[in-house]
Amino acid sequence: MIVFRGFGKDFGGHCAVASLSLEVGRGEAVALLGPNGSGKTTSLKAAAGLIRPTRGEVLLGDPPRAAVEPAARRVLSFLPQRVSFPDALTGRETLEFYRALHGSPRGRVDEVLRFAALNGSGGRPVATYSGGMVQRLGLAVAMLPDSPILLLDEPTASLDPDGLCAFYGLVSRHRDEGKTILFTSHQLGDVERLADRIAVLVEGRLVAALTAREMADRLADRGVLRVRVTGGGTSLLPGVQALAPRARCSGDELVVPCPAGARPAVLDRIRAGGGEIASLSIEEGRLDALYRDLVGRKA
After folding, report:
1. What is the band of 299 on the pLDDT scale with cuts at 50, 70, 90?
2. Cα–Cα distance between 77 and 74 in angstroms, integer?
3. Are 145 and 104 in contact (CB under 8 A)?
4. Superfamily covering domain 2-217
5. Quick one: which of 44, 3, 60 has its CA closest to 152?
6. Non-local CB neighbours of 260 within 8 Å, separated by 6+ positions
7. Residue ranges per domain, the chain?
8. For the whole model, what pTM was predicted?
9. What was the pLDDT predicted at 267?
């Protein structure tokens, strides 16, 4: 449904995106990650047909059309990174304006107001809205056309817990309906919760593309096993280090960084050495650490 094929974009002498080749299928939610200035927003704007590629192409829909064609733009909704609306209009008036612009059914306004949890504030001027409420209104506008493709640039910025819950529910529902979502986020919790795949951009180039399963496996391999041993684990440490070289003692606890598949053998080694396990816990690898590793590999 979304195809970047050798996409590149220059602004004057600055290369915003060097080369991006990525496909997003029907019903997928894919997250674009990367440091500031890595080309995420530029890529989303190209998919929205707002900028023309310097190199390569961006295609949308089935059958595929160039993103800059009007027919391609009819199948998408785009939420930009920064949204603003006329202060004098109410939330409902803003939605009515965009509903008429899109030609959406009249009932859609009430539907998206419920989604955005703005029911009690739809009659208030936008000037009275907090930053989070304006972001919710922007999401509601993006939902009006009920498009098969959603392009969302930092969609959870400024959202409070109620807004986050509504947004997560929306993404799950749209994915279940077979719709396609491409989003950027600096909130790694969003990525872990929403993305089927992640694509990491650094300096305008794709440095990694992982499925949710691959990401989970990598995170599991970066996990830490913590085992509290009655009487302390100092005497057991050499045996454990034979299996997990980075193992260490911390008080009466053995701290063992190791892949998930090695954990049963570590526990067996502790028991074989006479250790009595009082408690154990597992800390799975963190996505932010994996992200820094991927970014650092390129940087």
Report:
1. very low
2. 8
3. yes
4. P-loop containing nucleotide triphosphate hydrolases (3.40.50.300)
5. 44
6. 220, 221, 223
7. 2-217, 223-283
8. 0.78
9. 93
Q: Give the DSSP H or E segment for 126.
A: none
E strand spans, the chain: 2-11, 14-24, 29-33, 55-60, 65-66, 76-79, 149-153, 180-184, 197-202, 205-211, 224-229, 248-250, 253-257, 277-283
Mean pLDDT of the chain: 87
CATH number for the segment(s) 223-283:
3.30.70.100
DSSP run (H or E) holding 70: helix 70-73
Residue 81's H or E segment, with its range, is none
pLDDT greater at residue 226 or residue 208:
226
pLDDT, one tens digit per residue, over 11-20 is 998 999 999 9
Could you tell me the strand order of the sheet in which 253-257 lies? 248-250, 253-257, 224-229, 277-283
Q: Report whether pLDDT(68) > 80.
A: yes
Local structure of residue 46 (DSSP, 8 states): H
Map residue 28 onto helix, strand or coil: coil
Element (DSSP H or E) covering residue 187: none
What span, in angstroms and rounded, lies between the C-alpha atoms of 204 and 8?
A: 8
- Tens of pLDDT along 214-223? 877 777 777 8
Highest mean pLDDT among 183-192, 226-235, 281-290: 226-235
Q: How far is CA 251 from CA 19, 140, 223, 254, in A?
A: 50, 53, 20, 8
Checking DSSP bridges between strand 76-79 and strand 65-66, what pairing results, if any?
A: unpaired
Mean pLDDT computed over 280-299 = 71
Q: Are 188 and 287 in contact (CB under 8 A)?
A: yes
Measure the CA–CA gap between 119 and 131, rounded to whole angstroms: 17
